[in-house]
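Hey,

Quick one before I head out. I ran the complex with zinc ion overnight. Inputs first:
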Amino acid sequence: MSETLVEFDDVLTRYEPVIGLETHVELGTESKMFCGCATTFGAEPNTQTCPVCLGLPGSLPVANAAAVESTIRIGLALGCRIAPWSRFARKNYFYPDIPKGFQTSQYDEPLCVDGHLDVEVDGETYRVEIERVHLEEDTGKNLHVGGATGRIHGADHSLVDFNRAGIPLVEIVTRPVPGAGAKAPEVARAYVTELREIIQTLGASDVRMEQGSLRCDVNTSLAPVGATEWGTRTETKNVNSLRSVERSVRYEMRRQAAVLDAGGRVVQETRHFHEDTGSTSSGRSKEEATDYRYFPEPDLVPLAPDAEWIEKLAAALPELPAARRVRLRGEWGLSATEMAWLVNAGALGLVEETVAAGATPADARKWWLGELARRANDAGVELSALAVTPRQVAELTALVAEGTVNDQLARQALDGVLAGEGDPRAVVGSRGLAVMGESDELGAAVDAAIAGAPDVVAKVRGGKVQALGALVGAVMKTTRGKADAATVRRMLEERVLGS
Ligand SMILES: [Zn+2]
């Protein structure tokens, strides 16, 4: 099924996009939200369950203090106000992966409200306002067996794994973000990227999108340029990578524009994103809002964190990513553009660690953005996935700085490191990569070059000193790049010109 799409640039001539994001983050607590069950990812199905998270009659939940603390820290990092009093509520609906028949969540009294996150795209800052950060529990997982797609359609039977049921889940909801125009897809991506980095810095979750510990629902709507009311939004569910966040907004903008151009109206619905085609397809219609019959959870006491504790948590927050970037930019003397390159290449942390291991910022950047970026690109992997550590890169730069190897030999040493032959210094030893000093061996190579090119020698002696370059090249070739070019030049000058 292929939809009619409008060219992206055309969309912007007639419509203004508004985006909004709901992000679910599984907290990395040892135990579940309301019981003591373990939360290990990938355990045998239904081995991490108990009467509380299975919703058996008579069981009573107790809130996980570590999860409450993590949520408050996330709220503080996003500039939220922490509610002095908040409550859990029951969100009632039936689904096989909800053993209790309701999800314990927060409704009109969330733990954190009114924050914001500033993100930068192409040198412009966009403020994303955070409406709320609340705490709830994850659902179990349905497994549809026997079909070709893993979806329920065509499956023989379905299984339910309750290991995930009751894992603490933080939901971070933005307000609608207007005004991003053509940058809306990138702003959406930048927001999730920054949010993910903040939560990682806080140590609150492993934020692995591919394992589902960070999941995104992306809202997109279009309104005619100059309209005073926003358009009807669609909600694209469970978008599983940063790239997909951007693509899903882009696709919805193009699709909705085609619907509106044809005089149709956008249906308020949830949509599914397809990684392979970059498209979305219709899911459940939301035209009739589901009534979840929320009511306050009678089995849990309200959350009333005291002000002193919140102050303590605020004071103990680590340096957040934005502040860290500003600090490092200053320390390394980089322009905003240079810093953006580093961040976009995913090299910031790697360069920081390489500098900490003794490299100069300039050398560390040169390696990670040059040779190593090229190799990661060739291999189709992230920089951080290369089989070389920041400490080893620092060692390479030290070997160059002390003159043991030149750049070309250092690249050969890197080959060895990536091939698992050990640290750079060891590889230089085992592969015999050290630069040749002014040895007999080098002298012999220089003499051979002179003897092999009498015409060049005559030119040099006749005043064409630049012709010496050909002799340097010949020596570098016979020594397979192991000689130091400046040394070779000096030795040639001595022998040819007698100086
Ligand atoms: Zn349990």
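The chain has a mean pLDDT of 93.

Talk tomorrow,
K.
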